[in-house]
Amino acid sequence: MRYIDVQNVTFQYEGEPVLENVSFSLDSGEFVTLTGENGAAKSTLVKVTLGILKPKSGKVIIAREDTQNRKLRIAYVPQQISSFNAGFPSTVHEFVRSGRYPREGWFRKLQKHDEEHVKVALESVGMWDYRNKKIGDLSGGQKQRVIIARTFASDPDLFVLDEPTVGMDDATTAAFYELMSHSAHVHGKSVLMVTHDPEDVKKYVDRDIHLARDKNGKFACFELHSQKDTSVVTERERGIN
To answer: Where is each ABC transporter domain found (predicted)?
Structure first.
């Protein structure tokens, strides 16, 4: 089932074209990466796709329902959003656990499978051993990992993640990629992830959407590589990340 369909999108920043005639799609059950050099407008493309930024032209269609005919749930984790102060009262476990409530209602009692989901989420980002610590006492990188864990615990249909593994060690990063791959390929979730480490993640993903400059240096090429097809559209050289 198609969750995202971006059609011929053009975006301008302060009057200068950043993205031009960009098209791509994302289906349920896919784990797809978005790569490119610094300034290649990866984060801009993500924000346009999610409706945070408005394109100058083109169309973005996001499904209203998931494969079970329920309202589609989207989780977006931008770069470095950890902003809890030292007085934040929740423990790591309490905060991530709260992500299990919204779909079924705030007043239901969590079941054994909910608690297992929370544990897997914390283990996947290397934060299970910190579960009883106050969030406000953690480092910025640790807070970011806790936010990612809560995002996973909330069980969205579509994950949109902007460089989520920054600050993770190699073992934790591999565990996180395994979890995202399992979520997509076993549970039918969709994952769109911005990354600077395409070689490390490529064995887990289905496709890579790559932003790169053309040989003239005036434009960037938006290349969609997959085992099934390859297409190229263009974007302007100037970008914001």
So the answer is: 4-238
